[in-house]
Write a structure and sequence with these properties.
Blueprint (H helix, E strand, L loop, with lengths): L6 E7 L18 H8 L2 E3 L9 H10 L22 H7 L3 E7 L14 H4 L13 E5 L9 E4 L6 E2 L4 H18 L22 E2 L8 E2 L10 E6 L34 H30 L5 E7 L18 H4 L3 E4 L10 E3 L8 H9 L11 E5 L13 E5 L3 E6 L4 E6 L17 H10 L1
Parallel strand pairs: 1-9, 1-10, 2-12, 3-4, 3-9
Antiparallel strand pairs: 2-11, 4-5, 5-6, 7-8, 10-11, 13-14, 14-15, 15-16
Length: about 450
């Protein structure tokens, strides 16, 4: 007898770099819930984001197409309305689909304040929500406390009191419990999951409908199987935003810095101060994720935990993201598979996987497959310069293997070349080493 398709849960954070967990060995990280998840998952310890900046990475992750080919070239570019997402494809297979939290893929006013209610209260219309039948979230705004939410049940933005990760995870957990308990009704509006979606995937406007401008008259959702993305902003700046009481009280002087953070100057001072806040948000968000995981049925749910990019936090004297260094491009990726498929629990897998692969892997999990993961190298790039403070100052593209990383400038000339096997901290740029010229050129030809 064929097993029913699994539920699939993506937990997607922002700015959570690969090293910043207890299971990865970070002495600063207090992540007991993620550590427990790692013990039951495959840990893809070499995972990268294809683009170490939010909108580019989110678009690539949802579509399986890198930027700018997916339509997102600039930081303020929206995901095109015609873009085909993983939600569209799973909907065609009968999945109920839901999205909670940060979207960051609709039109934003480049002149408005990035941090605050201006971007947090932007209304994303139903036809620009990536094909999700149920959607409840916010465009952006970086309000780590008291977020504004709108969507399927909330036609206008409404404030919710509390820490953002708590609010989003608890509301997503409630939806998971509800959709697992209620039998779908063909073609009818259901507040728990929105309209059911037609086999054709066509999105039809329904003028005058108060609850949504879309109507999806369709057959029942097969076996009430669901796909849900929970998208969280923390541990993104502002790092000094308050966190719920009860966590570790981090002092900057107690932070253990990486060896590649310069000591004795402003970089160290800023790094320590910001990391104290960063790890407080890591710990608080870990607690919220723990409650979310408790709501997901263990026997038939694929769970994915990741982040759209990391943060330099003073490494090489740099801050924020967009940079091609490990702290910026490497992200956590845990995958817990149900049943017999989860036989590799607790394993550390060095496969060269990227977030751009996640949509295809998800489709294969939905089809009952145990797909091979990773390729010969990972492509990484920044399609444009994001002109915000401390971000990377140039366009670049490159590739990464287990042992090498080559980064090219916009004109195709080598910018950085690292031996990751001997120099994991990327202290020595080998671009001008004549003894590496042949291998560097061979790598460049692959790109």
């Amino acid at each position: 007898m064929t097993a029913p398709p699994p539920n699939i849960l993506w937990i997607v954070t922002t700015q959570w770099r690969a090293q910043a967990t207890g299971y990865a060995g970070d002495p600063n990280a207090r992540t007991p819930h993620l550590d427990a998840l790692a013990a039951e998952s495959v840990n893809y310890a070499q995972a990268v984001t294809p683009h170490p900046f939010g909108p580019f990475a989110r678009a690539a992750m949802l579509t399986g197409v890198p930027s700018p080919e997916n339509g997102v070239r600039d930081y303020f570019d929206p995901l095109p309305g015609e873009a085909r997402t993983i939600a569209d494809q799973l909907r065609m297979r009968g999945y109920a689909t839901a999205f909670f939290g940060k979207w960051h893929l609709f039109q934003r006013d480049a002149q408005a304040d990035l941090v605050g209610p201006a971007h947090a209260k932007i209304v994303v219309p139903p036809e620009r929500r990536g094909g999700f039948a149920f959607w409840e979230g916010f465009e952006s705004g970086f309000l780590l406390n008291d977020p504004w939410l709108h969507g399927t049940r909330l036609p206008e933005p409404a404030p919710f009191v509390g820490y953002q990760s708590d609010v989003i995870c608890d509301r997503a957990a409630a939806w998971i419990r509800e959709v697992g308990e209620r039998k779908p009704e063909t073609g009818e509006w259901r507040p728990e999951i929105g309209y059911l979606i037609p086999e054709s995937g066509e999105r039809k406007a329904d003028a005058g409908e108060a609850k949504s401008s879309l109507r999806f008259p369709v057959p029942e959702v097969r076996d009430r199987t669901w796909f849900c993305i929970v998208s969280l902003e923390p541990p993104h700046p502002p790092y000094d935003a308050p966190v719920p009481v009860g966590g570790t009280e981090w002092r900057p002087e107690a932070i253990v810095l990486s060896q590649n953070v310069p000591r004795g100057g402003d970089v160290e001072t800023i790094s320590r101060r910001e990391l104290a806040g960063y790890y407080a948000h890591v710990e608080a968000t870990d607690r919220a994720i723990g409650r979310l995981l408790a709501a997901a049925p263990r026997g038939n749910t694929v769970v994915v935990f990741t982040s759209v990019h990391g943060d330099m936090h003073g490494a090489h004297g740099l801050f924020r993201k967009g940079w091609p260094h490990e702290e910026s491009v490497r992200v956590p990726l845990l995958v817990r598979l149900p049943g017999a498929a989860g036989g590799r629990r607790g394993m550390r897998d060095p496969a060269l996987v990227s977030l751009v692969d996640l949509s295809d892997l998800t489709l294969r999990w939905a089809g009952g497959e145990s797909p091979a993961v990773g390729g010969k190298f990972q492509r990484i790039s920044m399609p444009s310069v994001v002109r915000l403070p401390r971000q990377c100052d140039r366009v670049w593209r490159g590739g990464r293997t287990l042992t090498r990383k080559l980064v090219l400038a916009a004109n195709g000339d080598p910018w950085l070349y690292f031996d990751l096997e001997r120099d994991p901290g990327e202290a020595i740029n080998l671009r001008d080493d004549p003894g590496r010229a042949a291998e560097m050129e061979a790598f460049r030809r692959q790109l």
